[in-house]
Design brief:
Elements (H helix, E strand, L loop, with lengths): L6 H13 L12 E6 L2 E7 L8 E6 L2 E8 L18 E8 L10 E5 L2 E7 L23
Length: 143
């Protein structure tokens, strides 16, 4: 068996242990991706091991807040933990949304540990063609 040591991973694990798990008053950050796909923005959050009912998504004005809690798995009394690297606790992320996004029609899906939010671009923000009228003649201003 080949074992590889990553000193940065060990440093990250040590920092997580010292800082402790996230709490509701001081949540840990969660990784995310954000990109535009056609006429909507897509934001994907990594939440492996989090139950769907432990995820809370709120929008107030243009502030999107996602909170999730990874709870410990119930273990029998005779189980002795040998290694525990998966962080537990509360995770949170806040994103300021542009005024050009339609926050009334956000769709959320949770599959395979990934929460995906699809935020449509508001109709008023989409590009549109402006027609130019041609005047019938000259007008004079007298005064």
């Amino acid at each position: 068996m080949l074992m590889r040591t990553d000193p940065f991973r060990e440093l990250d694990r040590l920092a997580q242990q010292l800082m402790g798990p996230g709490t509701w008053s001081k949540p840990s950050a969660m990784p995310m991706d954000a990109y535009r796909e056609g006429d909507e923005y897509v934001v994907a959050f990594d939440l492996p091991g989090v139950a769907a009912d432990a995820i809370d998504v709120d929008v107030e004005r243009n502030m999107l807040t996602v909170k999730a809690e990874r709870r410990p798995v119930a273990k029998a009394d005779d189980v002795q933990m040998e290694l525990s690297e998966r962080p537990l606790g509360v995770f949170s992320r806040q994103i300021v949304l542009a005024d050009t996004l339609d926050t009334e029609h956000i769709k959320a899906d949770y599959d395979a540990g990934v929460l995906t939010l699809r935020i449509p671009i508001a109709e008023r923000a989409k590009p549109r063609k402006i027609s130019i009228g041609v005047g019938s003649g000259r007008k004079e201003i007298s005064g």
